Amino acid sequence: MNAQRRTARKPNGFGEAHRVATNPLAAVERQCLLWLASRLPRRVNSDHLTLLALVAMALTGLSYFAARYTRLGLLLAVVGLVINWFGDSLDGTVARLRQHERPRYGFYVDHVVDCVGVALLVAGLGLSGYMSPLVAASFLVAYFMLSIEVYLATYCLAVFRLSFWGVGPTELRILLAIGTVALLSDPRVEILGRTYRLFDVGGVVAIGCIAFTLAATVTRNVQILYRAEPLSEPASQDL
Fold first, then answer.
1. 135-138: Cβ within 8 A, 24+ apart
2. Which residues pair with 196 in a beta bridge?
3. Which of 5, 22, 93, 138 is 20 to 30 A from residue 229's alpha carbon, by CA?
4. HSE (CB half, 13 Å, CA atoms) of 62?
5. Does the domain formed by 18-226 have CATH 1.20.120.1760?
């Protein structure tokens, strides 16, 4: 679908962006979420699920911090990631299935919660001893820069990208969970004869991937917007 697609405007003037998800798990995840949403008690609504996602992310960050003192914290962090997936992925599905959509409210609250949650998670990692504070802070800056680009593109192009290069939020949670479990056996990795923290290596790789994605996405979107709004010559005036 053309990235410049315009969406229909609702009476209040707000148009919902076209959602684009290219990650390989998207189709299976969508069916799973629909199955869960249809069986969720009616008293549980999308706001409850959004709050659950935020609490789960805070739990995950605290669990990483606790892992500084007990390895049980690593297992609790994985549990927190699973709970976060449940709340964060299901809230929108429940709203759409029950026809309780509130596009502006939902988009705003959901992504404010996401940003706060990621900040809490990365803070926990930076204090855990498994990732250096510098790498954690650099990753957080890179993540927020990409998030800002996504939100600006959603507004300017009416296209909301949920994944890049086949990697979306669910795949990121899975990769983080796998890395967390790997910490139980060996928190360090040897590269070219030197030993590094496993999560420092993973963090640096993630920062590089985000930087590349940001540069490619900004370049593409600038070109799309430039072509959509070409400069026009001012009308000549006869003297």
1. 135/199, 135/200, 135/203, 135/204, 135/207, 136/203, 138/203, 138/207
2. 189
3. 22
4. 8
5. yes
Residue 112: which of 64, 149, 144 has the closest Cα?
A: 144
Residue 170 structure tokens: 């669910």
Q: What is the pLDDT of residues 135-181, one digit of tens each?
A: 999 999 999 999 999 999 998 988 888 778 888 888 999 999 999 99
CB 156 within 8 A of CB 218: no
**What's the whole-model pTM score?**
0.84
* Contact criterion met (CB below 8 Å) for 45 and 94: yes
| Domain residue ranges of the chain, discontinuous segments joined by + | 18-226
Residue 161 host element (H or E): strand 159-161
The H or E element spanning position 203 is helix 198-228
pLDDT in tens, 27-70: 888 899 899 999 999 999 999 999 999 999 999 999 999 999 99
Element (H or E) spanning 111, and its range? Answer: helix 103-126
The answer to whether 203 touches 135, Cβ cutoff 8 Å, is yes
